[in-house]
Write a structure and sequence with these properties.
Blueprint (H helix, E strand, L loop, with lengths): L3 H17 L6 H4 L5 H17 L4 E7 L3 H7 L5 E6 L35
Antiparallel strand pairs: 1-2
Length: 119
């Protein structure tokens, strides 16, 4: 398990990559003993830091839901993350290539729920 200082260093790395639109070195290269708990802790710290800077939390995402994708990623369960207001791209919007470090398209389904999902 990483120290709180190392988790904060990891968030610094991600924040710098985000601002500079450059790919960060995979965190497991820097910290080979990183755990899934560390990864979610880093994700939560990053989300909190973004919200402190003004981003609004608008929802959560679930990824790697298919067994085939889990096998390809060497994991055995879906993952989740945070969605902020600056991640919304309106229908028909034009995206600038320079806003991304390695642009790719991945089809994702999204659902807007009528009320909060508990449990």
């Amino acid at each position: 398990m990483l120290s709180e200082a190392d988790r904060n260093k990891a968030v610094d790395i991600l924040e710098k990559a985000f601002k500079e639109r450059k790919q960060a070195t995979q965190l497991s290269t820097t910290w080979p003993n990183i755990t899934i708990e560390d990864a979610y802790g880093i994700s939560t710290l990053w989300a909190k830091r973004r919200m402190a800077a003004g981003a609004k939390l608008i929802g959560h995402k679930v990824g790697l839901t298919s067994k085939a994708m889990q096998r390809s990623s060497n994991i055995d369960e879906p993952d989740f993350g945070y969605l902020h207001d600056d991640m919304i791209v309106p229908d028909g919007a034009k995206l600038k290539h320079s806003d991304f470090c390695k642009p790719r398209i991945e089809v994702e389904l999204a659902f807007v729920l009528g009320k909060r999902l508990m449990g």
